[in-house]
Structure prediction request, 85 residues.
Amino acid sequence: MARTDNEYLQGPYYEPDDEVSNVAYRLVTTRKKHECVSTAYGQSHEIDAGTRAIYQTGIHVDDGRVSCYLCLACAGRCLNEMEAL
Ligand SMILES: [Zn+2]
Prediction:
């Protein structure tokens, strides 16, 4: 199911976490390969360079600035599940 950018940016894709604050999502086009942060839907997998993905940033209490990439396929499945609740 195709979604708009805004829908993708709604999230949230993760449970609220005491250790990570200032969580923000941005839609980006990757310039190189990145590991998708989600393994919830099977094997760990990569996001190809030049693919649109959700870039998540936050501030971890110990590690400082943290960031990760989530592919739109995983994001879409996550949103579908939330809507089904
Ligand atoms: Zn993924």
